[in-house]
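ingest -> validate -> predict -> emit
validate: passed (alphabet ok, no gaps, 400 aa)
predict: started
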Amino acid sequence: MSNAWKIYMLAIVSFLVGTSEFIIAGILDQVAKDIGVSVSAAGQLITVFSLAYAFGTPILMAVTARIERRKLLLYSLGLFVIGNGMAVALPGFEALIGSRIILALSTGVFVVTALTVASKLAPADKQGSAIATLVMGFSTALIIGVPIGRVIASFYDWKLIFGGIGLLGLLAILVIYYTIPHTEGEAPVPLRKQIALLKEPRIAIALSITFFWIAGYSIAYTYISPFLLNVSAMSGEGVSAGLFAFGIASLIGSKFGGYSTDKWGVPRTLIGGMLFHAISLILLSLVAPFPAIVFPVLMLWSFSAWSSGPTQQYHLLTLAPEASGIMLSLNSSVLQLAMAAGAGIGGVVVEHASLTSITWIGAAGVTVAAATAAASLGLSRTRRLAEERRLQQQAKAGVS
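emit:
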């Protein structure tokens, strides 16, 4: 219990980092209008962020492996402040791309390091809940950060959002310095060893679950503001309210995911959450013309999608507990690749088909993830039972 409040401090800073990442989707139409590009082109700011995060994080985590963890958190937050400052001070689409790259690299290092620190601060039987608490910090960004950002962008200037985040980033540096204890780094793991982990079938399959799940989610979420504005014909205030409802449900979902993982295990939580995720995306397209019904469906989507986060990360930790930092880094990279793929696919769909199609294609991706999870976890259970029977038979033979 003595470390619980420290984990919550990490979650609070995670909220700030999450707001900087998620806010683009909430103000996409405003950014596109201000810098003079199409909505689908602006959506590629998410693609750029995700690609930089995906490829940069493993390299940076390998290079900084020996650095004491609190120092690494502080360094990443310093870079985070610089990235937000660039978004405010420098004009043009190219400068914004540069800002997103800096923010992606700093976010990647902070997220992986924070998850590692939180799992070490928590008791062994509460690691799932500790991870869920950090995920809760990110999901709180959807509740508070994105809707407030939407309001600021509508009435003032979207650049004010990044200015405020940068100033709060300076405060976050002080919070981390005074609350998080020294945590030793890990032995550096060469990139070839990280890639070698991907050659293990059970790990590769587990990471493919992350890819299809997040790609399906991203196809729809990247363009959620234009979807609500144009398909559901909501006002700007209605979109802000919808994003707020989405965020509330994400908070509840992430906490439920951690609780359910500890209580009922990974298979039920992961597969069940993804099935509800796919169903809610299909429902969203069906009820889109009825704004009053859209709200509860948005909340069901968010709840089910975010319930899978802590469960999947805990599942990956159990596959390679001796390389927890690398597993979290690989998962974060795959997650961001999926975000990039989803944003890219969604942009193509919006440009050449229609906004209404994004939820159907997103649901297909999540369904593939659920099927992969069911097959993978079922196979793992069969192998585990077979191994237990083999050991029992050896024990009986030894006794006789």
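Residues 189 and 246 are 38 Å apart (CA to CA).
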